[in-house]
Amino acid sequence: MKKIMFYHGQPLRILPVTLIFCFTSILGCSSEEKGERNQLTQQGNRSATDRSLRTEVGEASWYGPGFQGKETANGDTFDQTKMTAAHPSLPMGTKAKVTNLENDKEVEVRINDRGPYAKDRVIDVSRAAAKKLDMQEDGTAQVKIETKRTDKKNSSN
What we know:
Elements: E1 6-7, E2 10-11, H1 16-27, H2 31-51, E3 53-63, E4 84-86, E5 95-100, E6 106-113, E7 121-126, H3 127-132, E8 140-148, H4 152-155
Parallel strand pairs: 3-7, 4-6
Antiparallel strand pairs: 1-2, 3-8, 4-7, 5-6, 5-8
């Protein structure tokens, strides 16, 4: 027995051409569509990589002689000749790339202390880091801080 489907009281006739069109649309047979999908996937992958970076911009300062030999927030002994920094919230041990936006000089520091405590500052770098950033004389500089996001399992290390 033949089944006939109805739409608004009229018999529904499906032509082979209609079926072929539907299947090719669903399967995305056109190479142009595949290229577009590939491009979107690559953009999505780039976005995922971009999301793995944390960026912060603001004013940096440096600290040195008055803190030399004192204990930092993570228990290290502060050494102004090391590439370290104080940040209010980055996990201890985080490696951060700090770029002086006034001269494009950059340095990698390890977060081992909390601070800065001066208003409107985003990071305090050691004297050695300040020297590499060429901000030692002025004492402050506009910087960009870039860190890779860490999951909670790794942030405690």
